[in-house]
Amino acid sequence: MTPQREDVLAKVRKWIGVADDDLAVARHILELRPHCPFRMAAYHAQQCAEKYLKAYLVWRGVDFPHTHNIARLRKLCSEHTDWAAELRDADELSPFAITTRYPGESLVVTQADADLSVQIAERVRQVVRQALEKEGLKL
Question: How many domains does the chain divide into?
């Protein structure tokens, strides 16, 4: 394996590690009921999905913009794979990247929103990991 390819593998694994940390935090937050900050669970679920898509783009050598827009990242992924269309519902997570972090934003995140966000992030994780493994990345 070339040093350049080893560098790509290391970067992909770092993206995945941080994404998995976000998912672990989101799951943990949901356990804090009844005093659960649902907005923070949704935020970390969005971060997980975003970082998994970016990990795939790193794997494929695609430069991507500094964005939290899941639809935009999915579009970039779709130029290299067909599974990105399966994750269309992940686009719903994009607003949680910003509106959940700052006071005064109008987005209210319910328990149902947070639960669904984590489920979507888990599916993004599963689909991307399967794609990476199919393309030869040992996880």
Answer: 1
Contacts (Cβ under 8 Å, ≥6 apart) of 127: 83, 86, 87
Are 98 and 104 in contact, with CB atoms under 8 Å apart?
no
Q: For every one of its 139 residues, what pLDDT tens digit does the chain have, with 9 covering 90 and above?
A: 677 788 999 999 999 999 999 999 999 999 997 889 999 999 999 999 999 999 999 999 999 999 999 999 999 999 999 999 999 999 999 999 987 777 776 678 999 999 999 999 999 999 999 999 999 998 8
Long-range contacts of 104-107 (CB under 8 A, 24+ apart): 107/39
Extract the tokens encoding 120: 């979507």
20 domain residue, yes or no: yes
Containing domain of residue 72, as a range?
Answer: 3-134
Q: The CATH number of the domain where 47 resides is what?
A: 1.20.120.330
Tell me the C-alpha distance between 73 and 65, whole Å: 9
Torsion region of 66: left, alpha or beta (phi above 0 gives left; psi -120 to 50 gives alpha): beta
